[in-house]
Amino acid sequence: MTENCLFCGIVAGSIPSQQVAENERAIAFMDINPATRGHLLVVPRAHSTDLREASAEDLTAATLLAQSLVGRVIERLDADGANLLSCIGADAWQSVFHTHLHVVPRYKDDPLQLPWHPTPGDVNVIAETAAELR
User: Fold this and answer.
1) A single Pfam family, by name (predicted)?
2) Average per-residue pLDDT in the chain?
């Protein structure tokens, strides 16, 4: 646990939340700023800033919990789909620096849009970038 971390406080029970599910290494609770009805956060119990720092065991537990919640929101909330999102760094919209996954139920008429407009990329730039990442 890290002092002054909102999610560590939720994990510890010192900050109230609407917890929905848990396993040995992760918990899931409702987002208080929901993008859509049923927006959940899944966090490892152990503090890490983002998924680069999280242990493989914590990431596995959080991902498996998120997987089960995707099924729940589709079945129980009649969602048409779901987005699973992890923000890493302030410039990528991370606002709480404790590893977490957003489970965002999607509905046909919800107001959310992709944050970019997909357009074909330059195949040469794509190939060069792939080479840099190999």
Assistant:
1) HIT
2) 95
